[in-house]
Amino acid sequence: VQLVESGGGLVQPGGSLRLSCAASGFTFSSYPMRWYRQGPGKEREVVASISNSGYTTNVADSVKGRFSISRDNARNTVYLQLNSLKPGDKAHYYCAAKGYWGQGTQVTVSS
Questions:
Q1: pLDDT in tens, 58-69
Q2: Inter-residue contact 70 to 81 (CB < 8 Å)
């Protein structure tokens, strides 16, 4: 199993990013996926989840209305769209499935 995140970076407050997680080594379309984040000095928290079909999604209250999750089972990829970013969204973002984790991608929000 391999999960490879990308798309992080430095963005100004109010900006947007789209994170991607490319999966391999398992039947991607059979498993739900989750995005987590861990900010400086904070515990890791789940940000969003999506069912294997993509029809059911959940987003943490802290990012509801700003973040969204989607997946493309043909590309074995799950996405996290981050809009209206705030300094408090600064964190390392990880995707996870089947108990496996990617290496994460860093998001920094600063002017």
A1: 999 999 999 999
A2: yes
- Residue 41, both tokens: 């000095």
Q: What is the largest CA-CA distance in the chain?
A: 41
Could you report the per-residue pLDDT of 100-110, keeping only the tens digit for each? 999 999 999 99
Q: Which residue type does 45 have?
A: E
What CA–CA distance (Å, rounded) separates 105 from 5?
A: 6
Beta-sheet strands, E only, within the chain: 2-6, 9-11, 17-24, 33-38, 45-50, 57-59, 67-72, 77-82, 91-97, 100-101, 105-109
Q: Please give the C-alpha separations between residue 68 and each of 5, 25, 38, 81, in angstroms, as whole numbers.
A: 16, 25, 18, 5
